[in-house]
Amino acid sequence: MPRTRLISGVFAVSVLLLAPAAGAFDLGGLIHNEQLGNLGKAIPKNSQTSDNAPASGAGLASFSNKEQIGSLKQALTQGAETAVSNLAKENGYLGNDKVRIPLPENLQKVASLLRTVGMGKYADDLEVSMNRAAEAAVPEAKTLLVGAVKGMSVSDAKGILRGSDDAATQYFRRKTETALAGKFKPIVAKSMRKVKLAETYDQFAAKGAKLGLVDERDAKMDDYITRKALDGLFLMMAEQEKAIRANPLEATGTLARKVFSAIKY
Prior knowledge:
single chain, mainly alpha, about 260 residues
């Protein structure tokens, strides 16, 4: 083996060993690779590599259709689990300005008035309760998201690999949003029953909706929180997906590392 190729190979393995594990969608360089047309080719017997080393020279064509789809599923499963766990912890929503659930617009006006008379604590407590409800509900997403990965077809996988920066997130939203709302809402409702101001809001908003002054989707506090909790979940998943597409070296999992490394190098 020429000296330059040997040095390049050692460098590639070193980078992979030192790369930090990432809890995100490990889609990487698969997106723009023209070798996707070779999805059906089997792995040559002499192309087996160690867990962290890239496949030798044959690139994506060295991996079978099963291997490539398996690597994508591996990455998506870990990414979904990480997104859920990050939001489910205390202040997962409340402490993150990107997903923090604010008071509904119509209630924000009331909150402003409360603050002018020294009663802002009521509004603040309600906002904290809303975000705590979302944090309590989001663990329910894990089973449905992982199920969506397991049910992924070859066609679905190809669409994600060749799609936009948030193609995987769009797939998850399309496949799980309705079911997730059904799982989230009872938990949110149970949490918010403890907050009497939420009941007052529902009464106020219901009248406003009839007059066309309040968005129908915001007419009930439970519905509003559920929708915002889902928006936050999919936002975080999309951000992780975009980051990993931009830096494929952050691929996690043995199979995913092998496939992405074959493309990168």
